[in-house]
Amino acid sequence: MKASLVIPTLNEAASIAHVIRLFRAAASEANGTIFRGDPLDWEVLVVDGASADGTAALAEAEGARVLIERRRGYGRAYKTGFGAAKGEVLATADGDATYPVETVPGLVRKLLDERIDFLTGNRMAYLDAKAMTTEHRIGNRLLNVFVGVAYHHYLQDLPGQRLVDSQSGFWVFRRAVLDRVHLTQDGMAFSEELKLEVVMRGLKLVELPIRYGERWGRPKLSSWKDGIRNMMFLAEKRLDVARERARGAPVPFARSNDRGLPP
Question: Terminal CA-to-CA distance of the chain, rounded, Å?
C-alpha cells in the first residue's frame, strides 16, 4: 500500500532534515514489525513556500519530493500536497519538529485495523510548557469552546461530544475522505474546516492524545489575528451548513476544479 506524509514548510532549514530522518527510521522499523508481510510504500512530500533558507534543498537531500507553492497559506499548502500525494493513506505534520512523526506508522496501523476514517492528534494532552505562548493557549481554548457550542449537533458521536483540539495539524486519514469533504480555506482555518467536514459528512473521526513539543526556529503564527479570522470562519461555516438543505451539498475536494496543484 502506498502512503504519503505531507509536510508544509516555510524556512524550516533547522529542523526539516531531523523530521524526515525521524519519520523514515520509524517507518522502516514498522515495516519490519507491525507491517511485516505487507510493508507500506511511503513517500515524503514537502510543500515548500519558496523558503529563503534552503529548506527545499535539505528536504530533497533527505529523499523527499518537494513542491514549491508560492501561493501563501497553511491550507493552500495542504491542498497542494493532497492534490499531488500518491498514497491511499495520508499523514501530515509540520516541519518544525513539534509533532511526533515517529508515531505515524503506528497510527496508520490503528486507522486500518479499527476501520477509522480520520485520526487527529490532541496537542493539549501532553503539551510542552514551551510549545505555545500564553496568547496561543488562550486562543486555542476560545476556538475549541466556540466549536463545541456552534457545532454541538454534529459532535454527538465523539467522546465527550466535543473536539478537544480543533486546531491540531497532525492527522492520519484515508485518501477516500477527500471524496466527501468540501474544503474552502487557504489559511489556518483549514485545520478546523477539515475536521468539521469529516464529522459533518458522517465519517468516523477519532481524536488521540499526542506529545506536542517546542518548535525549532521562530514561530510564524499571529495568535490574535489568526484567531479572529478563525472565529469569523467558524461562524460563517455554520451558517453555510445550515443553508445546505436548500442549496444541496457542496462539491468535495477530490472532485473540485481546484485540486490544489501549483500553477
Answer: 29
